[in-house]
Amino acid sequence: MLLRRPLSRESGQVSVSLVAVVPALILAALAAIQFALAGHAAVSAAGAARAGARASYTGEPVRDAARAALPESLRDGLDVRRHDDGIEVEVEAARALPFLPAIGVSASAHLAPEGGVPDG
Fold this sequence. Notes:
By secondary structure, the protein is α+β, with helices and mostly antiparallel strands. About 45% of the residues lie in helices and about 15% in strands. A hairpin with a 2-residue loop joins β1 and β2 (about 85-90).
């Protein structure tokens, strides 16, 4: 003899909740990955700016030094600018998905003698 349980009104509730929550979790994970990629680009840009400032101080090519300090994945979008107060490096952060907008990240650095900038 087969016993059947009566169907409750909540029998499909778990499936509906799962369908509603999974896309939100995926979106949150992609946002976290994108923020991590932007953070990596910011740290890398800061290192490249410091390398560019050292090169500027020693008279070496600034762009080459900044480019060499970056990981290969960030070298394509490199933009190096000299200012009176130092070197600014801007890179484009990698994208978690190709259709996401590009995030530009910049950092600047200044290198001077220990006693300050000489009067010239």
